[in-house]
Amino acid sequence: MIRTSELACGLTVVTERMQGVRSVALGFWVGVGSRDEQPAEAGASHFLEHLLFKGTSRRSAQEIAESVDALGGELNAFTAKDHTAFHVRLLADDVEVGLDVLADIMWDPAFRPGDVEAERQVILEELLMEADEPEDLVNELLAAGVWPGHPLGREVLGDAGTVTAMSVDDIRGFHAAHYRPGVTVVAAAGLIDHDDLVARISARWDATGRAGGGDRPTRLAPSGLPTAVTVHRRKTEQAHLAIGFAAMGRHDPDRHAANVLVQILGGGASSRLFQEVRERRGLAYAVYAYRSGYDETGIVGVYAATAPSRAGETLKVVAGELDRLGDGVSQRELDVARGSIVGSMALGLEDSGARMHRIGRALLVHGRVPTIDEVTAAFESVTVDDLQRVARRLLSTPRSLAVVGPFTERQVAAWS
User: Fold this and answer.
1) What is d(CA 165, CA 123) in angstroms, rounded to the nearest whole number?
2) Residue 137, CA atoms < 13 Å, CB-side half-sphere
3) φ and ψ at 126, to 5 degrees?
4) Can you give the pLDDT at residue 350?
5) Is the dihedral of CA 104, 110, 114, 118 positive or negative?
6) 168-178 and 44-51 helices cross at what angle (nearest 10)?
7) CB–CB of 82/294 below 8 Å?
8) What is the C-alpha to C-alpha distance for residues 74 and 223, in angstroms, rounded to an integer?
């Protein structure tokens, strides 16, 4: 059973009680991410993700870690382009500890100068590590090409310049401005009592003495033409290719059909890309398609890694499969893709952590939590005609190509 309450301060609490489990997953979901940062703040949300675990006025970083480790729990966080989440999973008997730790780090971070400097170096190392991962790099370059000059096209981690320049006051100010109860959802799933959790959260918030409220950040939709080709020349053993285009957002009525279409294109071992690029032609070990949705836009992308000598051929095959979507799909392909999506969704909700992520993110970005039956029905209603219509809608959008490998722009241009 899913229940929702809004506190007087503006904070929203959503819970899903699960029978037959002994655990609780609890998370604070903040509706602010990398797309909400000014250029000089790029990476601030991710910086905060790290810093909130470094200590509060009552706890050191080690004490935060030990308090959860001692119970066999898991404490973690992540930053996305439009939200940031901090979450813990532990036994239901220990939910008081998990809530105390999360409320403490969210509402009373210390921001000690020494901790900020230490974590700054950790993030700079993380940036270097990601730059060494060509798969991550090429997909980031694709996003930058699809949304040039827009925060959605920017790396979530920021860059070395902005991370180095951010002061303690800058980070503290970003937290004070954006980490407000009016843009925060607390989600819990497992062996949890909704009313009891609401009472505990209310008491903790009241004890902070902080002002409530807080508005969602103002967001501008991307505009302008995408970048056609981006080449990052690097001596690599494989060529890493990413091709994609802007797509419908998360509220678009065609989003479920788009997800099915992407599944058919490159979502599994039976997909067109896997069968054609890997199984029939042996061009790549890794090839897949994906879709991400945001409030007003989204992206569909395809990634493939292949030998540099076969990069041009691989790109032509991938582009051909994209074009072929416009010719339509079979009922069998629709049935297989839909079954995969619905089945994976159901299997993925077997534990409290997955349930917490579903309800927390849904309430934060959609304003409500649809039932599993609703979501299943939305996929079941997709028809072959819907897929052809959505494919033509998507394929009318200009494409961007990103390449990481031992190539010049002239060499890449010669592939087309």
Assistant:
1) 13
2) 22
3) -65, -40
4) 87
5) positive
6) 90
7) yes
8) 41
Q: What is the number of other CB atoms lying within 10 angstroms of the CB of residue 366? A: 11
SS3 call for 103:
helix
Separation in Å, CA 150 to CA 195, 219, 232: 42, 11, 20
Encode pLDDT of 215-249 as tens digits: 989 999 998 899 999 999 999 999 999 999 999 99
Active site amino acids: 49
Tens-digit pLDDT profile for residues 354-403: 999 999 999 999 999 999 999 999 999 999 999 999 999 999 999 999 99
Structure tokens at 388: 């052809």
Cβ–Cβ under 8 Å, residues 20 and 143: no
Place of tokens 């998990």: 98
**39 to 80, 165, 178, 180, 217: CA distances (angstroms):** 16, 12, 16, 21, 15
Comparing 132-136, 150-154, 209-213, 293-297, which segment has the lowest mean pLDDT? Answer: 209-213
User: How many Cα atoms are found within 13 Å in the side-chain-facing hemisphere of 142?
Assistant: 31
Asked if 271 and 263 count as a contact pair (C-beta separation under 8 A), the reply is yes
**DSSP readout, 111-150?**
--HHHHHHHHHHHHHHHHHHHT-HHHHHHHHHHHHHSTTS
This prediction has a pTM of 0.94
- The single-letter DSSP state of residue 240 is E
The token pair at 65 is 């870690």
Q: Which residues contact 364 (CB under 8 A, 6 or more apart)?
A: 29, 31, 83, 185
- Secondary structure of residue 92 in the 3-state scheme: helix
Question: Cβ distance 249 to 297 under 8 Å?
Answer: yes
Nearest residue to 259 (alpha-carbon basis) of 318, 341, 329: 341
CB atoms within 10 A of CB 3: 17
As a whole number, mean pLDDT of residues 142-159 equals: 96
- Kindly report, residue by residue over 97-138, the tens digit of the pLDDT: 999 999 999 999 999 999 999 999 999 999 999 889 999 999
Q: How many other C-beta atoms lie within 10 A of the C-beta of residue 29?
A: 25
What the block records as the tokens of 46 is 């991710």
As given in the structure block, the two tokens for residue 175 are: 């937290």
- Classify residue 329 by its DSSP letter: -
Closest CA to 165 of 124, 127, 109: 124
CB atoms within 10 A of CB 22: 12
